[in-house]
Amino acid sequence: MAEEKKRAALISVFAAVFLTGSKLIIGIITGSLGILSEALHSGLDLVAAVITYFSVRISDKPADQDHHFGHGKIENLSALIETLLLLITCTWIIYEGVSRLVSGETHIEVTYWSYIVVVASIIIDINRSRMLSKVAKKHNSQALEADALHFSTDIWSSSVVLFGLVCVNFGWFFADAIAALGVAVIVLFVSFQLGKKSIDVLLDKAPKETMLIVEQTLEKYQQVKYFHNLKVRSSGADTFIKFNIHVDADLSLREVHKLCDEIEKDLESLISRSEINIHAEPNE
């Protein structure tokens, strides 16, 4: 499990190195703000990919004396750092885009290499986004999920830049700066999504979908008269669940223990990497 996550994160790092270098070179040669903004975006992608790689290496370490609930939240912290990096990207892109539109300094030299690097970027991002998304879902990894979402928006931002380059060929040089601002809008949208999700987990906000699964599962057991004090928290790929159930006071300890085991196995089959704590009480 851990090896597959690390391999996916490492492939993402290599892809980010290639894209950052190629976009930076072509952006400097052509003077395209759209491509330079994508180069900066990819540079921060590289930093985010490296952070993700090290976070998935650490997050799967078992609980120890200092971290009783494991190291899973390093993935959520990684996603939050990635959000901050994206916001830095937006600030620079918006500043440069507005400056060029105001000053009118928008002359750009577009070459075949401009198109090659942008199209190659789109193809690479499609493939690595699919790969990361598949592994993230399989192992319930928020860090990889954040990377997958991030790179799926890179596809759209690169498409916006490609549109800007086409417009430049028709003499509409201002389109490049507008395309760069389009990239910034897309990045801001993604930043909000990633930031909200990572902060929710870091602040132990109860995941509604998981709560619903637990409630629906408990309702299937006739021996459970009612339940209360349901608490759910996430930490990286791990989910911690605790609740109280009320059962018939005439049930033996062995029967209650068996019931709790059945509920635990049922929930574990529905919620991957879950740790469940059930407190049984007599229904009087």
List keywords for this structure.
mainly alpha, Alpha-Beta Plaits, three-stranded mixed beta sheet, elongated, Alpha-lytic protease prodomain-like
Termini, distance in Å? 46 Å
CATH homologous superfamily title of the largest domain: Cation efflux protein transmembrane domain
User: Which architecture of the largest domain per CATH?
Assistant: Up-down Bundle
Describe the strand arrangement of the main beta sheet, using strand numbers. 1-2-3
CATH fold node name of the largest domain: Alpha-lytic protease prodomain-like
SS strand fraction: 5-15%
Task: State the domain count.
Answer: 2
Order of helices and strands: HHHHHHHEEHE
Low-confidence stretches: none
Largest sheet: 3 strands, mixed
Report the top-level CATH class of the largest domain.
Mainly Alpha
Structural class: mainly alpha
Give me the Rg, rounded.
24 Å
Shape: elongated
Helix-strand layout with pairing:
Blueprint: H1 2-30, H2 33-59, H3 73-103, H4 112-139, H5 142-169, H6 174-202, H7 208-218, E1 226-235, E2 238-248, H8 253-270, E3 274-283
Parallel strand pairs: 2-3
Antiparallel strand pairs: 1-2
Helix pairs in contact: 1-2, 1-4, 2-3, 2-5, 2-6, 3-5, 3-6, 4-5, 5-6, 7-8
Give a verbal description of the structure.
This protein folds into two domains: 2-202, Up-down Bundle (Alpha-lytic protease prodomain-like), CATH 1.20.1510; 208-283, 2-Layer Sandwich (Alpha-Beta Plaits). Helix 2 (33-59) packs parallel to helix 6 (174-202) and helix 5 (142-169) packs antiparallel against helix 6 (174-202). A hairpin with a 2-residue loop joins strand 1 (226-235) and strand 2 (238-248). It is mostly helical and 284 residues long. The model has no long low-confidence stretch (mean pLDDT 79). It has a three-stranded mixed β-sheet with strand order 1-2-3. The chain has eight helices and three strands.
